[in-house]
Amino acid sequence: MKKRFNCCYEKSFRQTIYLTRMKSLSRNQIFIAIAAVLFTFMLVANPFHVNPNAAKVLAVATLMITLWLGEAMPMPVVALLPLIFFPLMGICKMDDAASPYANSVIFLFLGGFLIGLAVEKWMLHKRIALSIVKLTGTNGNRIVLGFILATGLLSMWLSNTATTMMMFPIAMSVIAILEHKHGEEKVKPVAVCLMLSLAYASNLSIGTIIATPPNGSYVNFLAERYHYNFSFRDWMLLFTPLSLLLLLALYFIMTRVIYPNKIKDDKETDELIEHDLKQLGKLSHPEKRVLWVFCITAFLWITADIINSVQKMVKLDDTIIAMIGAVSLFVVPSKSDIPETKHLLEWADTKKMAWGILLLFGGGLTLAKQLEKAGLIQQLGNWIAGFAGNNVLLLVFTVTIISIFVSEIMSNIAQVIVFAPVVAGISDAMHISPLLLGIPMTLGASCAGMLPMGTPPNAIVFASHKLQLKDMVKTGFIMNIVSAVLITLFCYYLMPLIVPNVPLLK
Description:
globular, disordered N terminus
């Protein structure tokens, strides 16, 4: 009987998997067909009556954006399409299409990713997270604050997804201890807060150029189009305070407004944190050395302009510093007891690298370059600017809120790649600094919080079964509005005060 039941169960399971795959396959085929039809329509009908070369670029852009939106193909694969279509259609030569894939910003992120890999490999990130939670205490609200601060701090230097995945099991362990002590119903507000805090703190941590891919993409766009170098130090001066403000707003809104709780300090949770820290032991030799590389790299990023001003022998920039830090990880001995890890990083460790993000950068940069070259961006900017009026503050808010809500359904990096030239065109047409629209658009792209598919961190915490979709939609909507208001006010009123040359950029 048991064997028969197992056979039936196995058959049912296989049928479910088959139907799921067929459904997914059909959806992908539909979006690929839609993308192909739109590509052909834009190429043949030329609905916007642009010149033939611009029509070709617009057709390829439509194809790529449709495939990105529908997720019918892996996004990095879509980013490779310009290498096929641009030379094939005579839009540009292969060398011109391929060169953006080796842009300096790609190597900046490559360096950042490698440093992040080393931090994760030697468990330094877990030690930092547990230490911060230990400092904040185990009161319900302070636990949430501790996770927000720990996640936000780590996400400034590591990828949002990696940070959330690292913090997720720690948070689940804390929730399990609290539920055992107080009961599931009483702990539910804290559980929802903890899960959402992991995703939102990762998303809202926008204080460094490498904190999230859209930041690096837009910095590179400024360098390419306006020859403006937005340094790592200037970005931190401007947006680390904003990031902290967003994180504090997240804490107060969740714990005081939406999900208040009555969980007091708990010895068992304290003991769990203490136990995990003791399990890690003292700082190992590899941890210390990774920490040194991490701190020296961050120090050079912050002080590069000062170093360049006092000496003329070498000229440091953010990418060079990132590569120095990354390469040193393969040179510095780890002094580990594990035979196969002679250095802080081995090439085998790069299997975990986010190579797809780097390809995505390259494809987006190539697309943006050809859109600009075809004159499409300038035309679109002039068209939109005609409806914008003279209220720049309202325009900044509109761009920010559109960016936030669009990123709920579209990859934030793809969004910035597509929108950066558009808002630049609007700025040029209105004769205002492109940063006034470009920075809010970029920051807004990282703040999606309403839907699980908005960002990978959202999807990770939603899979915990500790919260419902209505929890994410409600909290995410409120945080979207709060983020739009804070980003708008900060960029419009405070950005010019903190970095005086910002409004002079034209």
